[in-house]
Amino acid sequence: MNNFDLLDAIGGVNDQWKQEVITHMTKNNNTNTAGRYARKPSTARRILRQLPVAAAIICLLGVTAYAAATHWGIFDFQRESLRPFPSEAQEIVQQQTETGSIVQEDETGSTELIKCEITESVNDGRQLNLTVRLQSGVPGKYVLLNQMDEPGMAASYFGADYDGTIGEYAEENGMTLLEVSAGVQFTENGQGSGVQTVQEKHQAPDTIDYLITCDMADLPASGEGILVTTAREFDKVNFEDIIRTEIPFSFLETANSQSESYRPVNQPNVEGVEITDVNVSHTDLRTYIEITYKMPQKLLDEGAMFRFSPDGEYGTASAGSYTEELEPGLYKHNEEMSKTDLGDSFTMEFFSLWGPEGKTVLDTVEFVK
């Protein structure tokens, strides 16, 4: 079964990016391990993306046998995050009330496969975080599997008090396996990272809670979004077997933001590279760094970009980064990190992913206020 079929049904997934993720997974022979994905340049505006080790398109979390009635909100997911939001940000979380259903129509009539509920959101102007619950429309009839789940996985992972696999659990209880997904629909001209991160929590075999995080630049400026949910019986293999529904929702920008200007003490000692602007923004959720710079095509082809040293003071604070092309030869590095006071100065590396010597630090740059 092609797990990316469900992502296609949601929309907003770049074919080249998918192929590189598939190649990465095949190379490592492990589709359940979150990893670091940075793609080689293409004609797309968003050209380089680097995720921390703890992040991926689907992040699988361990599960405890919670009652299905206990839905997870944004800060429940934050408890298991390596880079959690500040606890005081709980005050700006917005309660959501939008609901919908995935309904199957056949010759016998209509069957509600999945109940869908949007429960919480928080938006700091840079990223939207949304929690969603999917639950079997008929109690005791469906077991919900996410895109990376398999029937051979332990039933306890899905919140079942059962020693065997989830496939065995479903068969013993006369339940049908449904493969489901949830995601936010991008706008056609999205200009952000082009990636949304989806974390899942199985509360019970028939219930999944999600935390969806996506770049605000990929969403409508109107504060109106669309949640897309899909379902397909696990033993069905065709794209046409996917049932899709859309749920409109509203969201507010509730976080405060403060910007600071920095300048480079030194330019990277790399031919053709020049930093032209540096801006740091602090919101109630995160710290964001934007570095605008000139760079020749050769370095772009080698995956040259900025990063914090993995062994440095802020190496563990990064929550991911991407580089976008503003115009030919001019780029912007976007760094997202835990809310951090960078002080009067900070240092980043300019490094190459695919240079002649592989991943190589080309120079170090200090930034000061």
Keywords:
20 strands; elongated; 5 helices; 369 residues; seven-stranded mixed β-sheet; nine-stranded antiparallel β-sheet; mainly beta
Write up what this structure looks like.
With 369 residues, this protein is mainly beta. The chain is built from 5 helices and 20 strands. The chain has helices spanning 4-10, 15-28, 74-78, 166-172, 297-301; strands at residues 46-50, 58-60, 94-95, 99-106, 109-123, 127-136, 142-145, 176-184, 196-204, 207-215, 224-233, 243-250, 257-264, 274-283, 286-294, 304-307, 318-327, 330-338, 345-355, 358-368. The strands form 3 sheets. A 9-stranded antiparallel sheet has the order 1-17-18-15-14-13-20-19-16. Mean pLDDT is 84; it is low at 12-45 and 53-67.
Write the layout of secondary structure elements.
Blueprint: H1 4-10, H2 15-28, E1 46-50, E2 58-60, H3 74-78, E3 94-95, E4 99-106, E5 109-123, E6 127-136, E7 142-145, H4 166-172, E8 176-184, E9 196-204, E10 207-215, E11 224-233, E12 243-250, E13 257-264, E14 274-283, E15 286-294, H5 297-301, E16 304-307, E17 318-327, E18 330-338, E19 345-355, E20 358-368
Parallel strand pairs: 2-9, 7-8
Antiparallel strand pairs: 1-17, 3-5, 4-5, 5-6, 6-10, 8-11, 9-10, 11-12, 13-14, 13-20, 14-15, 15-18, 16-19, 17-18, 19-20
